[in-house]
Amino acid sequence: MQMSGGHVQIANGIAIIVKLTNSCNFSCTYCGVSGFPIRKKGLTIETMSIEQIIQLFNVVCNSKKVSSVDFIWHGGEPLLMGPNFFKKVIKNQNKIFKDVNIKVENSIQTNGALINEKWIKFFKQNKFGLGISIDGDKELQSKQKKALSGNSYNQTIKGIKSLQKNLIPFGTLAVLTNDSIQIGAKNLFNFFINKGIKTFDFLPQEPILDINGNQLSENIYPTKEYVIFANELFDIWYELDDPKIHILLFEEIIRSLLNKGSKICQIGHGICANTIFTFYPNNTITQCDKFPRASNTIKKEEISNITKINSIDEVCLSSTYSKVLNQQIKTLKWCGGCKYYNNCKGGCTFDRYLSSKYNLNNSQCSIFKIFEHIQNRIKENINR
Length: 384
Known about the structure:
384 residues; alpha/beta; ten-stranded mixed beta sheet
């Protein structure tokens, strides 16, 4: 399993999103962890210790069922922990998993602003999947991803150039907002290509909800404008037909339509309660972190606590886990009758939660409309 852009790629195993810290050197307008809406309400910094990481490794290592695990190092901004912290992580990981039959992979999602020679050396020595968060050109990036000091665009581009110079592979992720849509799909596509970025992905801005389910931020998901933007972006990518340019969501939808399955959690899986977990600095284990927990902005079910279990297998034995699993299964009813269900399998659980929250029917599902557009384009191409 690896992380590319904002999607977890699933193999035969589990993914654990490790929220190392909610501290960040940026304050993004749409972020539910340490962005402007959260800082406005007050942000209490939480940071994980190496002892907690070691305990997590031991809990996973003691599993009798897990065949592979992808540790997705996340934040806030995970690079704030520093290279020395990550060296300790890798040292202990290698030691603990040395004699067990569990495949281990690591990936990290970062804004890239802190990348320097020490980080370059670390990335060269350790096989990390690397995702860089960047929304677009200088005007858009500076507006949506505000640096606490300096300019966010300049800092992220400097990090990207350093990775490119040192031939370190990475993917990028753009969060789509109303401002992104106003810029247009072609301009966003051209921005990435002109910067030499050949692997990129996008996610729609999603609402930040308070403890009562009220929105703290605007959202563009799901909207007609988002679907139009996504379909225009697909057309540009599809017509260019350059095998060196990868947009993961589109590639995986095509794989799914061709009945080849999907490697990402957003397409072709539907239930993630038994494969994707999130580990927080307060020792709690929850479901996918797309269900926002940050700074007490929304009620979040604690499935387990790392200090109360000996093996990750025990997580699935809790009553809370059963509740979360049943809730995820229940939301699949929303997809009833959808002609793409056998391909999509219900898509992202959190997306279904949003759709039910806003009382939408499945014909209004954005993924449905993107699937339909892509299928029609493929049929047109075949019939030429």
